[in-house]
C-alpha cells in the first residue's frame, strides 16, 4: 500500500539533498549484476533481486532491534522498467531506430544495483522497513528506480522465551515523518487485506465472470507447477532458518513457469501483492512449491503460489503464499493479448473469482493514489469495493500534509495561529490552537460532523448520508456562497447574494496507533450516484482536509485544521491569508467554546437525531450501484 501520491526519482534526490540526516537503521547494499545473477534474457533475475532486498531489509531491522529478526511479510512490490530506450542511447550513443530487443536486455549485466532499507516505524514487536532499489550505469553515471517495497519484520524471542519490545523510531526529516505517519495506515490495510477479498465476493460487488463460456480457453491444470527444494546450509540465514529471500526466489521461479505454460512465451513479472510468511523453515526441510494460473486477463496473468515445508515424517506445514502478476511484452515493449484460462471446478472457480477481486482492488488503488491535484474532477467515485483504499488514501494524504516542515506563519491572534504552505500551484493552510479539553474528548466532539454547524459558520448544514463503519462516514455539507469579487467572507455581516455550495465528503477518523500519535479526522470529496449535483447548488470539491488532535499536557490538546485549498475553498480563507480579516480566529474560538461546553456530555447527547433515518435503505442502494 504505497503512500506516494506522485513524484519520481529526481524529486526524491532533490528532497534528500535538502534533508541530510543519518537514520541509524539505514542499511545500503550495492551489487554488480554478473552473468550468474541474470536470467535467459541477460536481465537481473527477480529471485536474485528479492534475495538482496530481503537481506538488506533484515539487516536494517536487526540494527534497530538489536536482536535477531525474521521476515513476516513483504508487500507492495512494484517492478518498473529497468532501463529506458533513451538511457540506452545516451549510454552507447546509438540511434533508437537501430535498437533491437536483444540489445535492450544486454545492458543489465554489468550495471550496479543499489538497495537502501531503513525502518519506517516500530510497533510493539514488529516493524515496517521501507526498501528502495535503483540501478546505476557506471559508464554514463545515470541512475533510475527499479522497484520499491515494504517489508514487515518481527523480533525473535530471547532464550528465556521473552518477547523483545522495540524502541520507537524518532523521525528527523520530513520524508521520515511522512513514512512514519503513514506506516500505521499501511499496517491497518495489511491486517484487513484478506477480509477485503472475502467481503467483495460475499457482497456481490464483483461481477461474477462466466469462466465456462470461453471454448478456446486453456485449462488451468495445464499451467500447474510442482517443485521440491531441499533446504541446505547455503540456503539458511545467520539464524539457521531458511533465508526468506531464498524462499521468495523459489516461489518466483515456479510462478514464472506456470505463467509461461499459459502464454508460451517469456513473461515479465510486474507486481507481487504480498509474500506472507506463516511459519519458519529450517535446514533439512523439504519445500514443496506449487503454482497455478488463477486467471488471465487481456494483458496480464495472475499466478498463485503456495509453499509448504515437511520433514521425512510429519505433516506438511504451510509457510508462505503469494499472488504475482505477469505480462508478456512484444518486440516494441508493449503488452501482448493473452489467452483465456478455464479454471478447475470448485477451488479453481474460487481462485478465478478472487483474482478478479484482487485486480479490482489493484485498479482502484492505482486510480485513487495516482490522482493528480490538477485533475478535474478531484472527487473519486465511492463504492464499497474501493472504500478501504479510499479511506487509506484519505488519512495518508492528511498525515503527509501535516508532516511537511515548510509551513509559514501568516497570522496569529491570541495564540490562534494561521500557517500557509505553497507547493507548486497548490496553496494549503493550517489553523491551530490549544484547548482545555482532553484529546480523546475533543476527538469525539470534532469527529461528529453533524454538529459542526453549531460552531462553524462555514457549515450551514451537514447531514450524514451513510455510516460505512465505525471509522468512515459519508456526509453532505452545505456552505455559504462567496460571490466572485466579493471582499467579505462567508462569516461577514453581508456576504452578498450567490449560489450555495455543497460537498460530498468522506470522513475517516483514526485513533492514535502509538504514543505521540495524534487523533486524525480526514476529509476528502467523493462522488455518489445517489447524490449528483443538484440545481440551486454549486458542487464543490475538497482534495485534502481535516483535523489532527494531539494530547499535550494537563488534559490540554493541540487542535490543528488542514486544508489543501481547492478553487471552491480558497475564497473562504483568502482574506485571512491576506491579513484583511480574522474569521479563522472567530471560528476557532467558537470551536473552543463548543468543546469546553460539551467536554462532559455523553456521545448519545451529541448524535444527530437524523443519523439513523436514512442510512439503512441508502446503504443497500449504494452497495447495489455499479460505478
TrEMBL record:
> Which pathway does the record list?
Lipid metabolism; fatty acid metabolism
Q: Which SUPFAM superfamilies match?
A: Bet v1-like, Thioesterase/thiol ester dehydrase-isomerase
Which parts pass through the membrane? none
**Gene Ontology terms: biological process:** acyl-CoA metabolic process; fatty acid metabolic process
Q: Name one GO cellular component term.
A: cytosol
InterPro entries annotated for this entry?
Cytosol_ACT, HOTDOG_ACOT, HotDog_dom_sf, START-like_dom_sf, START_lipid-bd_dom, Thioestr_dom
Q: Where is this region: Disordered?
A: 1-25, 606-627
Q: Extract the GO molecular function terms from the UniProt entry.
A: carboxylic ester hydrolase activity; lipid binding; long-chain fatty acyl-CoA hydrolase activity
- The HotDog ACOT-type domain extends over 23-159, 221-332
Please give the Pfam families that the UniProt record associates with this protein.
4HBT (PF03061), START (PF01852)
**Catalytic reactions of this protein:** butanoyl-CoA + H2O = butanoate + CoA + H(+)
Q: Which residues form the START domain?
A: 407-588
Q: Which UniProt keywords apply?
A: Cytoplasm, Fatty acid metabolism, Hydrolase, Lipid metabolism, Repeat, Serine esterase
Spell out the subcellular localization from the entry.
Cytoplasm
Could you say which residues form the signal peptide? none
Listed Polar residues bias regions: 614-627
Biased composition (Acidic residues) is annotated at 8-21
Q: Which PANTHER family match?
A: ACYL COENZYME A THIOESTER HYDROLASE (PTHR11049), ACYL-COENZYME A THIOESTERASE 11 (PTHR11049:SF1)
What protein name is recorded for this chain?
A: Acyl-coenzyme A thioesterase 11-like isoform X1
Q: State the organism of origin.
A: Parambassis ranga (Indian glassy fish)
Q: Which gene is this protein's source?
A: LOC114450284
Amino acid at each position: 500500500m504505497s503512500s506516494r501520491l506522485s513524484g519520481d526519482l529526481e524529486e526524491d534526490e532533490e528532497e534528500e539533498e535538502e534533508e541530510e540526516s543519518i537514520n541509524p537503521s539505514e542499511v545500503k547494499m550495492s551489487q554488480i549484476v554478473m552473468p550468474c545473477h541474470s536470467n535467459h534474457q541477460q536481465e537481473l533475475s527477480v529471485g536474485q533481486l528479492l534475495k538482496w532486498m530481503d537481506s538488506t531489509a533484515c539487516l536494517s531491522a536487526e540494527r534497530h532491534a538489536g536482536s535477531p529478526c525474521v521476515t513476516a511479510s513483504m508487500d507492495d512490490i512494484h517492478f518498473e522498467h529497468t532501463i529506458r530506450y533513451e538511457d540506452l542511447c545516451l549510454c552507447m550513443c546509438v540511434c533508437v531506430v537501430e535498437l533491437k530487443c536483444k540489445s535492450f536486455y544486454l545492458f543489465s549485466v554489468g550495471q550496479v544495483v543499489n538497495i537502501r532499507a531503513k525502518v519506517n516505524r516500530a510497533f510493539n514487536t514488529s516493524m515496517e522497513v521501507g526498501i528502495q532499489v535503483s540501478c546505476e550505469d557506471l559508464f554514463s553515471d545515470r541512475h533510475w528506480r527499479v522497484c520499491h517495497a515494504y517489508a514487515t519484520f518481527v523480533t525473535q524471542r530471547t532464550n528465556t522465551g521473552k518477547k523483545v519490545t522495540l524502541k520507537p523510531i524518532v523521525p528527523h526529516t520530513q520524508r521520515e515523518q511522512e513514512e512514519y505517519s503513514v506506516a500505521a495506515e499501511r499496517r491497518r490495510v495489511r491486517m484487513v487485506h484478506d477480509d477485503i477479498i472475502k467481503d467483495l465476493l460475499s457482497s456481490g460487488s464483483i461481477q461474477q465472470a462466466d469462466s465456462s463460456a470461453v471454448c478456446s480457453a486453456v485449462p488451468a491444470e495445464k499451467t500447474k507447477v510442482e517443485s521440491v527444494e531441499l533446504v541446505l546450509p547455503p540456503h539458511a540465514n545467520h539464524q539457521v532458518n531458511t533465508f526468506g529471500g531464498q524462499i521468495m526466489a523459489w516461489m518466483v521461479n515456479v510462478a514464472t513457469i506456470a505463467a509461461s505454460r499459459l502464454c508460451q512465451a517469456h513473461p515479465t513479472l510486474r507486481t507481487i501483492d504480498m509474500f506472507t510468511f506463516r511459519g519458519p523453515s529450517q535446514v533439512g526441510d523439504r519445500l514443496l512449491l506449487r503454482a497455478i494460473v488463477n486467471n488471465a486477463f487481456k494483458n496480464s496473468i495472475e499466478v498463485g503460489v503456495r509453499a509448504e515445508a515437511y520433514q521425512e515424517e510429519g505433516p506438511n506445514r504451510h509457510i508462505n503464499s503469494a499472488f504475482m502478476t505477469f505480462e508478456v511484452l512484444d518486440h516494441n515493449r508493449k503488452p501482448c493479448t493473452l489467452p483465456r484460462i478455464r479454471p478447475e471446478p470448485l477451488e479453481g472457480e474460487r481462485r478465478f473469482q478472487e483474482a478478479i477481486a484482487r485486480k479490482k482492488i489493484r485498479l482502484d488503488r492505482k486510480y485513487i493514489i495516482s490522482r493528480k491535484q490538477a485533475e478535474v474532477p478531484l472527487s473519486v467515485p465511492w463504492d464499497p469495493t474501493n472504500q478501504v483504499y479510499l479511506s487509506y488514501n484519505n488519512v495518508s494524504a492528511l498525515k503527509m500534509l501535516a508532516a511537511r516542515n515548510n509551513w509559514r506563519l501568516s497570522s496569529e491572534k491570541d495564540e490562534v495561529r494561521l500557517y500557509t504552505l505553497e507547493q507548486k500551484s497548490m496553496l494549503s493552510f493550517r489553523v491551530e490552537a490549544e484547548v482545555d479539553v482532553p484529546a480523546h474528548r475533543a476527538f469525539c466532539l470534532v469527529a461528529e460532523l453533524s454538529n459542526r454547524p453549531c460552531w462553524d459558520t462555514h457549515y450551514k448544514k451537514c447531514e450524514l448520508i451513510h455510516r460505512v463503519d465505525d471509522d468512515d462516514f459519508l456526509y453532505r455539507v452545505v456552505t455559504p456562497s462567496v460571490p466572485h469579487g466579493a471582499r467579505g467572507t462567508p462569516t461577514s455581516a453581508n456576504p452578498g447574494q450567490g449560489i450555495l455550495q455543497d460537498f460530498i465528503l468522506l470522513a475517516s477518523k483514526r485513533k492514535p496507533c502509538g504514543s505521540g500519535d495524534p487523533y486524525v479526522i480526514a476529509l476528502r470529496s467523493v462522488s455518489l450516484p445517489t447524490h449528483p449535483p443538484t440545481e440551486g447548488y454549486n458542487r464543490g470539491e475538497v482534495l485534502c482536509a481535516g483535523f489532527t488532535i494531539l494530547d499535550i499536557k494537563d488534559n490540554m490538546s493541540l487542535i490543528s485544521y488542514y486544508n489543501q485549498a481547492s478553487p471552491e475553498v480558497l475564497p473562504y480563507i483568502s482574506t485571512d491569508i491576506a491579513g484583511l480579516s480574522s474569521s479563522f480566529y472567530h471560528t476557532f474560538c467558537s470551536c473552543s467554546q463548543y468543546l469546553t461546553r460539551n467536554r462532559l456530555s455523553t456521545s448519545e447527547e451529541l448524535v444527530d437525531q437524523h443519523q439513523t433515518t436514512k442510512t439503512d435503505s441508502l446503504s443497500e442502494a449504494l452497495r447495489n450501484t455499479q460505478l
